[in-house]
Amino acid sequence: MPEGHVIHGIAAALTGLLRGQVVHASSPQGRFSSGAALLDGCTFTGAIAHGKHLFASFDPGAQAPHILHVHLGLYGVWSFALAAEHPLAPHRNPLLTAAGEGKQPQVIGDAARFAVPAPRGAVRLRLVGKQAAADLNGPSRCEVLTAAEVDVLRARLGPDPLLGDSDPDAFIQAVRSSRRAIGELLMDQSVISGVGNIYRAELLFRHRIHPATPGQRVSVRKLQQLWSDAVVLLADGKRLGVIVTTDEGHLNEPPTGWTKLAERAPNEEADLRWYAYRRSGRPCHRCGNLIATSILASRTVFWCSRCQRAPSH
Ligand SMILES: [Zn+2]
Q1: Ligand 1 center–CA 196 separation, angstroms
Q2: Coil, helix or strand for 121?
């Protein structure tokens, strides 16, 4: 499942491709025909992300805006097509490639001859602007909401390190008031939004916190540092389209194709990109001890038992 940095990249991509344009919306697959009919002919005014949720605004003119809410879940994916001259064409701007986690957008003809490609697979929603199109396949949520409904939904989400107006104190308070393990709390989207399994393992390693440590036993100072680090790491992930948390190579552009390769988990790549994630049984980069695993919040968590001491009882 993509972590928050990808959804922020997609929001920026949709905004860059379609903002200010009257868009044609359709559901080639048919499962979102009535929702698409509401959006069709509206002016797209921009998209934002909050954690793993995407909110895109459509202005129908006379009535209140329609807000498209999308959660990709495990299988959802956006894909983009655009004319060669578009400012976001991949040879000019890496934004769409990053938002596609390394997958290149389709470049189709010049501005005058931009033609929408045939749908690939079950396209739930297709948005077409002047020189660009975006297709959504396989989301777990795709619905049209009112602004009030969006407020209700967002009120249940924890602060997002990539949103400038997020309140880190809300995160710190939620962790400090809980006996649940920090490794569980970091995966709880009502505690912090946008962190998934990779960022969880890496943030805990970088701050030397054992995943089983009860939230109330993690110091405020550590949580402040962890939050500030999350802000930097997620912003890097959004820019690069891949998660790289090792300090060496952190500032370098990763080789293209890393993302999909990492899903198949060749050790060599995990060794370069991460300290703990997908490195079970491999030596810790810091101390040489072998990386351990267990299950927390239904997903495998990875850590170093020497660098990240188990909480005492
Ligand atoms: Zn270690």
Answers
A1: 22
A2: coil
